Amino acid sequence: MTTLPTVVAVSGVTGLATGLGALPVFFRTRVTHRVYDAALGLAAGLMVAASVFGLILPGMEEGTLTAVMTGLLLGGIGLLAGNYAVPHLHAQYREWLPEGGATGDDAAAMAVSDETERPDHELSAFADPVAAGESADSTDSAGKADPSESADAAAEREVTLRKALLIGGAITLHNAPEGLAIGVAFASGLEEVALVLAVVIGLQNVPDGFAFAVPMADTGMSNLRVIWYTTLSGLVPQVVASVFGFLLVSVAAGLFPVASGFAAGAMLAVVFRELIPSSHGHGHADAATGAFLVGFVLLVVVDAVVVV
């Protein structure tokens, strides 16, 4: 029987894969919209196939069609309700869009920096609050702090925290269903299904991380900080959700059909609510559609290889 540390380790590895998608920021080359849209299409194809072959079909084998479809509807509705209720910033190509109560000012605060400044300066408002205390410019020659400087630093920290929470809300809405799927499968004794999901979600996390890192890098954030936040965006919600799903199904035996449908519904809602709209409308729909098909086929191949 799978143990909780195993679930944490597997979901942790899949979450860490998100950071691989941020590696292109080291080159600081301008990523084309075609590549960005194709990355979203690839991620969408992987998620749709994972929902069908890794969650819906195994759920129907373990339970009834009614249970799985009920869970699917609940998962999709839950994701849409969370998207409406939770204030967050949705990352798009070189811009941020406010949703769920976030304001236009929140998105404007993530302004794109000057292209010439990015390689040499840490301009991000995500700079750690601790770093603000490292500056000696806020004190005069007598060692006294400037009150206005302190007020500005406090206001900046407040803005930083709000932006971190807004982006964290989007990350959780997007990545939590994937972690939930892994935990639910492991708890139900379907180790092969769980491993297939882990491999596929890990693959999907790479283009997902890339899509997240592109607008993040354009805020002027340093390379290492972009990779750090991108990695956390996949690691934290997926590990937490996988643990929750594992414990939930372990306590309530026979819950797998509903839980698998719930995770599938939430993942499908992410695809059609965020990934597909974000990958179309820029003149590169063919590239996004082709990448979607590649992602779908890739899941089927991975599924066949792992099961065999």
TrEMBL record:
Q: Which GO terms describe its cellular component?
A: membrane
Subcellular locations according to the entry: Membrane
Under the heading InterPro entries, the entry gives: ZIP (IPR003689)
An annotated Gene Ontology molecular function:
zinc ion transmembrane transporter activity
The record's section on Pfam families has: Zip (PF02535)
**Per UniProt, which keywords does this protein have?**
Membrane, Transmembrane, Transmembrane helix
Look up and give the membrane topology term. Multi-pass membrane protein
> Where is the major localization of this protein?
membrane
Signal sequence interval, chain numbering: none
Key word Repeat present: no
Which residue spans traverse the membrane? Answer: 6-27, 39-59, 65-86, 226-249, 255-276, 288-307
Which superkingdom, per the lineage? Archaea
Q: Which residues form a coiled coil?
A: none
Region annotation (Disordered) maps to: 133-153
The question of whether tRNA-binding is a record keyword is answered with no
Task: Identify this protein by name.
Answer: Zinc/iron permease
Question: What organism, scientifically named, is this protein from?
Answer: Halorubrum kocurii JCM 14978
